[in-house]
Amino acid sequence: MNKQIRRLALGLLVCYVILFVQLNIIQVGREQALMADVRNNRLTTRDFNRPRGPIVTADGTIIAQSVPSPGGAYKYQRVYPTNDLFANVTGYYTFGYGSTQLEKTQDAVLMGDTDAQKLKAISGLFRGENTGSVVLTLRHDVQQLAAQQIGDREGSAVVLDPKTGAVLAMVNNPRFNPNDIAGVPTKKAGEVLTLLNLNPSKPLLDRTYQERYMPGSAFKVITTATALSEGVTSLERSWPSEKAWTPPQTTKPVGNYGGSSCGGTMAEVFYRSCNIPFAQMAIELGPGRMVNGTKAWGIGEKVPIDLPAPAASYFGDAANFTQNLPLLAIGGFGQGDDTMVPMQMAMVAATVANGGVMMKPYVIAASLAHDGSVLTQTTPEAWKTPISAEVATTLTTLMIGVVNQGTGRQMQLANGVQAAAKTGTAQLFSDGPEKSNAWIIGFAPADSPRYAVAVMLKGGVNDEISAGTGGKLAGPIAKVLLDHLLATETPAAPPASAP
């Protein structure tokens, strides 16, 4: 009898061990897989019956929030009060199609699920709601103004604080309205997403940091910086005035824009945006030094922003250029295979403004607990130092010339504030009507920079976005943004008088 009892006890013990192991495999080992299974909607159902915190701009505008959903399938509905204006940053939060952008990366904060928030809840500091909020560096007024200035044209505008890397605005067009996805039944949301994904203009893509474009002459800042750093050029150097020049390994000459004759001092060829001197500088630098010069600016690496799926700018590799020096030559003035991310072009301007130090761009200023206490706060961080302070000063001088005497006169600011800039018109040489990307990058005030900007309008088939429009089209947008930023600055408090 005792033997049978022992066998029964042993059997029950084995069953218990098996059950214990299996439960741990399911609850711990397979937790992530089960949570990610599309058939498991329990967590989603739970989350849509819980409040979710807001996403707020630096100037206090709520751009994403949850509101009660009376009579709906769930207690709460996610809404986006500014419609499409910040969709590239907030993304969307849906029941059937998941979430994107900050709605995805900041989910734990917004739902109150970070360890710090849970600890506050356990300690009894919160009663009931435990959501958090995300405060951005972006300003609603600047974002709205940039969107208005771009209008219905396809393009992007980025504004940075050059000293910190904080992003004040990042706008692109076309955009999408997240309310059309988050605020409708699942079937309708699917139909909207299908149409957005089929749109060749890619409205779901944030072109400010997830796409790259040929930069044209705006790239000459990088070529000049590399040539100055390597001793290939200086402010004292001059070039003859010529219409064409033939690089090595080809019989096909390169020319200046419009076939014009162009030359002069370093300052003159920069503000006139002659092509030939920059092609020659690239050849004199050679594949190795030119490519290393671009890498110093982070070209080839993904833009280090606190948003998902950033793109990387592209210049080329030294081995390929060794066999194709004409491609290196035209790469020196921003044509050929050169493609730049608009955010990174803003970072280029900001680097010159910041004495040669390139800061990491960021959009999240802080995350806050439900009681307003700080959960996380972004600390500005340098990413690269591609040039010396001396080279940055020289580039500033050259970029001031562009505004005062050259192709960037449209960026002459109100109240006599001096700006520094470089324009670019990237000829795309496609079949049919001529297409060009219109660029301008710059900063202000030139002597004490507080804002850096990049504007890009994508080449189209109409007469407006065509040849010679970097300054004419992108310049006025940058001017309006910089004028507004400078006009809306809070005056510094006067020093306290002595008692």
Shape: elongated
Low-confidence stretches: 34-41
Radius of gyration, rounded?
A: 28 Å
Count the helices. How many?
Answer: 19
What fraction of the residues are assigned to beta strands by DSSP?
Answer: 15-25%
**CATH 2nd-level architecture of the domain at 212-365 and 383-487:** 3-Layer(aba) Sandwich
> What is the residue-mean pLDDT, rounded to a whole number?
89
Cross-sheet strand order for the largest sheet: 3-2-1-4-12-13
CATH topology of the domain at 212-365 and 383-487: Beta-lactamase
Counting helices, strands and paired strands, the structural category is alpha+beta
Number of strands: 17
Distance, first to last CA: 100 Å
Describe this structure in words.
By secondary structure, the chain is α+β, with helices and mostly antiparallel strands. The chain is 38% helix and 16% strand. The chain has a domain at 212-365 and 383-487: Beta-lactamase (3-Layer(aba) Sandwich), CATH 3.40.710.10. The protein has helices at residues 2-29, 31-36, 42-48, 87-90, 101-105, 107-111, 115-122, 140-150, 179-182, 186-198, 207-210, 220-229, 266-272, 276-296, 318-322, 325-331, 342-353, 389-405, 470-487, and strands at residues 55-56, 62-68, 76-79, 133-136, 155-160, 167-173, 238-242, 244-245, 254-255, 262-265, 358-359, 364-368, 374-377, 382-384, 420-427, 436-444, 451-457. A 6-stranded mixed β-sheet has the order 3-2-1-4-12-13, with no helix packed on it. A hairpin with an 8-residue loop joins strand 15 and strand 16. The chain is elongated, with a radius of gyration of 28 Å. Mean pLDDT is 89; it is low at 34-41.
